[in-house]
Amino acid sequence: MxxxxxxxxxxxxxxxxxAKVGISAIIRQILFGEAYKYIFWMRTCRxxxxxxxxxxxxxxxxxxxxxxxxxxxxxxxSPSTEIGRGFYIGHFGGIVINDECMIGNNCNVSHGVTLxxxxxxxxxxxxxxGNNVYIGPGAKIVGSVRIGNDVAIGANCVxxxxxxxxxVVVGVPGKVISLRGAEGYINRIDYENKLx
Length: 196
Description:
Elements: H1 3-18, H2 23-32, H3 34-48, H4 52-73, E1 75-77, E2 82-83, E3 88-89, E4 95-97, E5 102-103, E6 108-109, E7 114-116, E8 128-129, E9 134-135, E10 140-142, E11 146-147, E12 152-153, E13 158-159, E14 168-170, E15 175-178, H5 191-195
Protein backbone atom coordinates (compact mmCIF):
# COMPACT_ATOMS: atom_id res chain seq x y z
CA MET A 1 0.00 0.00 0.00
CA UNK A 2 1.36 3.43 -0.94
CA UNK A 3 0.99 6.54 1.20
CA UNK A 4 -1.41 8.00 -1.40
CA UNK A 5 -3.67 4.93 -1.09
CA UNK A 6 -3.49 5.10 2.71
CA UNK A 7 -4.35 8.81 2.65
CA UNK A 8 -7.34 8.21 0.36
CA UNK A 9 -8.66 5.46 2.63
CA UNK A 10 -8.26 7.50 5.82
CA UNK A 11 -9.84 10.63 4.33
CA UNK A 12 -12.71 8.82 2.62
CA UNK A 13 -13.56 7.05 5.90
CA UNK A 14 -13.49 10.42 7.65
CA UNK A 15 -15.68 12.00 4.97
CA UNK A 16 -18.31 9.26 5.32
CA UNK A 17 -18.58 10.02 9.05
CA UNK A 18 -18.19 13.81 9.23
CA ALA A 19 -18.55 15.21 5.68
CA LYS A 20 -15.18 16.94 6.34
CA VAL A 21 -11.62 16.03 5.37
CA GLY A 22 -9.41 18.56 7.19
CA ILE A 23 -6.65 17.87 9.70
CA SER A 24 -8.75 19.30 12.55
CA ALA A 25 -11.54 16.83 11.73
CA ILE A 26 -9.04 13.93 11.77
CA ILE A 27 -7.62 14.98 15.14
CA ARG A 28 -11.09 15.48 16.63
CA GLN A 29 -12.24 12.06 15.44
CA ILE A 30 -9.06 10.29 16.59
CA LEU A 31 -9.48 11.79 20.04
CA PHE A 32 -13.26 11.61 20.44
CA GLY A 33 -14.84 9.67 17.56
CA GLU A 34 -15.02 6.08 18.76
CA ALA A 35 -15.87 4.27 15.51
CA TYR A 36 -13.50 6.36 13.39
CA LYS A 37 -10.72 5.84 15.93
CA TYR A 38 -10.92 2.09 15.37
CA ILE A 39 -10.99 2.44 11.58
CA PHE A 40 -8.04 4.87 11.63
CA TRP A 41 -5.80 2.58 13.70
CA MET A 42 -6.84 -0.44 11.62
CA ARG A 43 -5.83 1.36 8.38
CA THR A 44 -2.62 2.63 10.01
CA CYS A 45 -1.64 -0.89 11.08
CA ARG A 46 -2.16 -2.18 7.56
CA UNK A 47 -0.08 0.63 6.05
CA UNK A 48 2.80 0.70 8.54
CA UNK A 49 3.47 -3.02 8.47
CA UNK A 50 4.33 -2.87 4.74
CA UNK A 51 7.40 -0.63 5.14
CA UNK A 52 10.42 -1.97 7.03
CA UNK A 53 11.30 1.13 9.03
CA UNK A 54 7.65 1.78 9.92
CA UNK A 55 7.17 -1.85 10.89
CA UNK A 56 9.89 -1.47 13.51
CA UNK A 57 8.91 1.96 14.86
CA UNK A 58 5.31 2.98 14.12
CA UNK A 59 3.54 -0.37 13.65
CA UNK A 60 3.96 -1.50 17.30
CA UNK A 61 2.37 1.77 18.49
CA UNK A 62 -0.48 1.51 15.97
CA UNK A 63 -1.05 -2.14 16.90
CA UNK A 64 -1.15 -1.27 20.60
CA UNK A 65 -3.71 1.51 19.97
CA UNK A 66 -5.83 -0.83 17.84
CA UNK A 67 -5.68 -3.53 20.52
CA UNK A 68 -6.98 -1.06 23.09
CA UNK A 69 -9.91 -0.23 20.82
CA UNK A 70 -10.73 -3.92 20.35
CA UNK A 71 -11.38 -4.28 24.07
CA UNK A 72 -12.88 -0.85 24.60
CA UNK A 73 -15.34 -0.89 21.69
CA UNK A 74 -16.02 -4.59 21.20
CA UNK A 75 -14.96 -4.56 17.56
CA UNK A 76 -12.84 -7.33 16.06
CA UNK A 77 -11.66 -6.53 12.53
CA SER A 78 -8.15 -7.55 11.54
CA PRO A 79 -5.93 -5.03 9.71
CA SER A 80 -5.39 -7.71 7.05
CA THR A 81 -9.08 -7.68 6.08
CA GLU A 82 -9.57 -6.17 2.62
CA ILE A 83 -11.89 -3.19 3.10
CA GLY A 84 -12.56 -0.56 0.45
CA ARG A 85 -12.67 3.19 1.00
CA GLY A 86 -15.48 4.89 2.88
CA PHE A 87 -15.93 2.23 5.58
CA TYR A 88 -18.52 3.34 8.14
CA ILE A 89 -19.26 1.84 11.54
CA GLY A 90 -22.59 3.31 12.61
CA HIS A 91 -22.67 1.96 16.15
CA PHE A 92 -19.80 0.10 17.76
CA GLY A 93 -20.05 -3.05 19.86
CA GLY A 94 -20.20 -6.74 19.06
CA ILE A 95 -18.81 -6.42 15.52
CA VAL A 96 -16.83 -9.46 14.36
CA ILE A 97 -15.42 -9.70 10.83
CA ASN A 98 -13.26 -12.62 9.71
CA ASP A 99 -9.94 -11.50 8.24
CA GLU A 100 -10.60 -13.41 4.99
CA CYS A 101 -13.74 -11.39 4.19
CA MET A 102 -13.66 -8.80 1.43
CA ILE A 103 -15.67 -5.60 1.80
CA GLY A 104 -16.23 -3.09 -1.01
CA ASN A 105 -16.40 0.71 -0.99
CA ASN A 106 -18.84 2.78 1.09
CA CYS A 107 -20.20 0.02 3.30
CA ASN A 108 -22.08 0.61 6.56
CA VAL A 109 -21.75 -1.87 9.42
CA SER A 110 -23.93 -1.63 12.54
CA HIS A 111 -23.47 -3.09 16.02
CA GLY A 112 -23.78 -6.84 16.51
CA VAL A 113 -22.80 -7.67 12.92
CA THR A 114 -20.89 -10.86 12.17
CA LEU A 115 -19.23 -11.64 8.85
CA UNK A 116 -18.05 -15.17 9.45
CA UNK A 117 -16.45 -18.21 7.91
CA UNK A 118 -18.29 -21.46 7.26
CA UNK A 119 -15.97 -24.42 7.74
CA UNK A 120 -18.02 -27.05 5.96
CA UNK A 121 -20.80 -27.49 3.44
CA UNK A 122 -21.28 -25.98 0.01
CA UNK A 123 -20.74 -22.40 1.27
CA UNK A 124 -17.39 -23.11 2.89
CA UNK A 125 -15.39 -19.88 3.13
CA UNK A 126 -15.97 -16.19 3.87
CA UNK A 127 -18.36 -13.55 2.50
CA UNK A 128 -17.57 -11.04 -0.23
CA UNK A 129 -19.47 -7.78 0.21
CA GLY A 130 -20.05 -5.43 -2.76
CA ASN A 131 -20.04 -1.63 -2.87
CA ASN A 132 -22.59 0.62 -1.12
CA VAL A 133 -23.94 -2.08 1.18
CA TYR A 134 -25.85 -1.39 4.40
CA ILE A 135 -25.68 -4.15 7.03
CA GLY A 136 -28.23 -3.62 9.81
CA PRO A 137 -27.81 -4.25 13.55
CA GLY A 138 -27.37 -7.88 14.53
CA ALA A 139 -27.13 -9.17 10.95
CA LYS A 140 -25.08 -12.30 10.32
CA ILE A 141 -23.51 -13.19 6.96
CA VAL A 142 -21.86 -16.60 7.00
CA GLY A 143 -20.04 -18.62 4.36
CA SER A 144 -18.67 -17.88 0.90
CA VAL A 145 -21.68 -15.84 -0.19
CA ARG A 146 -21.54 -12.85 -2.49
CA ILE A 147 -23.48 -9.75 -1.56
CA GLY A 148 -24.10 -7.54 -4.59
CA ASN A 149 -23.77 -3.76 -4.90
CA ASP A 150 -26.32 -1.36 -3.37
CA VAL A 151 -27.80 -3.99 -1.05
CA ALA A 152 -29.60 -3.32 2.26
CA ILE A 153 -29.55 -6.14 4.82
CA GLY A 154 -32.11 -5.75 7.60
CA ALA A 155 -31.64 -6.00 11.34
CA ASN A 156 -31.05 -9.52 12.73
CA CYS A 157 -31.09 -11.01 9.22
CA VAL A 158 -29.12 -14.22 8.65
CA UNK A 159 -27.67 -14.44 5.14
CA UNK A 160 -26.32 -17.77 3.87
CA UNK A 161 -27.06 -17.40 0.13
CA UNK A 162 -25.83 -15.06 -2.61
CA UNK A 163 -27.72 -11.74 -2.84
CA UNK A 164 -28.16 -9.89 -6.17
CA UNK A 165 -27.48 -6.18 -6.73
CA UNK A 166 -30.03 -3.64 -5.42
CA UNK A 167 -31.75 -6.14 -3.12
CA VAL A 168 -33.35 -5.54 0.26
CA VAL A 169 -32.95 -8.65 2.45
CA VAL A 170 -34.74 -9.44 5.72
CA GLY A 171 -35.55 -12.42 7.93
CA VAL A 172 -34.06 -15.70 9.10
CA PRO A 173 -32.98 -17.07 6.72
CA GLY A 174 -32.57 -13.89 4.65
CA LYS A 175 -35.03 -13.42 1.80
CA VAL A 176 -35.08 -10.71 -0.86
CA ILE A 177 -38.23 -8.63 -0.40
CA SER A 178 -37.57 -5.88 -2.94
CA LEU A 179 -35.04 -4.54 -5.43
CA ARG A 180 -35.02 -0.95 -4.14
CA GLY A 181 -31.52 -1.41 -2.69
CA ALA A 182 -29.63 0.65 -0.14
CA GLU A 183 -30.75 4.06 -1.39
CA GLY A 184 -31.22 6.32 1.61
CA TYR A 185 -29.04 4.16 3.87
CA ILE A 186 -25.67 5.03 2.33
CA ASN A 187 -24.67 8.70 2.37
CA ARG A 188 -21.66 10.77 1.31
CA ILE A 189 -20.13 8.38 -1.19
CA ASP A 190 -18.66 11.03 -3.49
CA TYR A 191 -15.33 11.65 -1.70
CA GLU A 192 -13.35 10.73 -4.83
CA ASN A 193 -15.07 13.60 -6.69
CA LYS A 194 -13.87 16.04 -4.02
CA LEU A 195 -10.24 15.15 -4.83
CA UNK A 196 -10.54 16.37 -8.43
